[in-house]
Design brief:
Layout lengths: L1 H11 L2 E4 L2 E5 L10 E7 L4 H17 L5 E8 L4 H12 L4 E11 L2 H5 L4 E4 L4 E4 L14 H25 L4 H7 L7 E4 H6 L15 E6 L4
Parallel strand pairs: 3-4, 3-9, 4-5, 5-6, 5-7
Antiparallel strand pairs: 1-2, 2-9, 7-8
Helix pairs in contact: 2-3
Length: 222
């Protein structure tokens, strides 16, 4: 009986797979009836995963002309700063209302993407991590003073980016942001209550809902 139910569910909700994007839409749902959609992003931040995220948003906007809201559920430990910033700029200018939901963990460069929306939610046990950016040492050898300085300059560029974005989406004082982005020992972790206090989370609990269209993005290798 259970197997039969699963087969019927699969027939009712066709699953389409493109790269590491899984897309589900009910057979009985007309495109013009879709006014909300969800994207579950469970991946690190890099050029490929950001391309999948932005293309999913664009596909929803292009296919469903009556779309009003896109809920983006984030679970990401972060990753590439440039990719995170690119996603931030693209998403915050998106014509459709985007709601960001911390589904479990939003850390490092993933917090930049989270801040792309003015409507920010979090699950009850979700957590956030704010900490300094790291610059890569591509030489992997002894460093001369000018080479070491370039690495420090790169790190400060990204830490300045962190501070600029956090100042727009939180109430954390500038001095505290400077400390958070200056030393790993001053990193800040927030649960939902503390994230609300500093303004990172600015909405009440997201009500449980169903979506006519859902995308799932993962960087898991098959």
């Amino acid at each position: 009986m259970l197997r039969k139910k699963l087969i019927l569910l699969a027939l009712a909700l066709p699953i389409h797979v493109h790269a590491n994007i899984f897309f589900i839409k009910g057979n009985t749902v007309n495109d013009t009836d879709v006014d909300k959609a969800a994207i579950y992003f469970n991946a690190g931040i890099d050029p490929q995963t950001v391309a999948w995220l932005l293309s999913s948003v664009d596909e929803i906007n292009g296919n469903y002309r009556n779309i009003q809201n896109i809920d983006i559920y984030l679970n990401s430990g972060g990753g590439d700063m440039d990719s995170g910033y690119m996603a931030y700029e693209a998403l915050r200018k998106n014509p459709t209302k985007l709601n960001m939901i911390n589904a479990s963990n939003v850390a490092s460069s993933a917090t930049i993407i989270y801040c792309a929306s003015n409507e920010r939610y979090a699950m009850p046990m979700a957590s956030f991590l704010l900490h300094p950016a790291a610059a890569a040492n591509e030489i992997n050898d002894y460093l001369k003073p000018d080479q070491a300085q370039r690495i420090l300059d790169d790190a400060e560029k990204y830490n300045s980016l962190f501070r600029t974005i956090y100042s727009s989406c939180t109430k954390i004082p500038a001095e505290e942001l400077k400390a958070i982005t200056s030393s790993e020992s001053r990193r800040a972790t927030y649960n939902i209550e503390n994230a609300k206090k500093v303004g990172l989370v600015n909405q009440d609990m997201k009500k449980q809902t169903t979506y006519p269209v859902t995308y799932y993005i993962t960087d898991m290798q098959n």
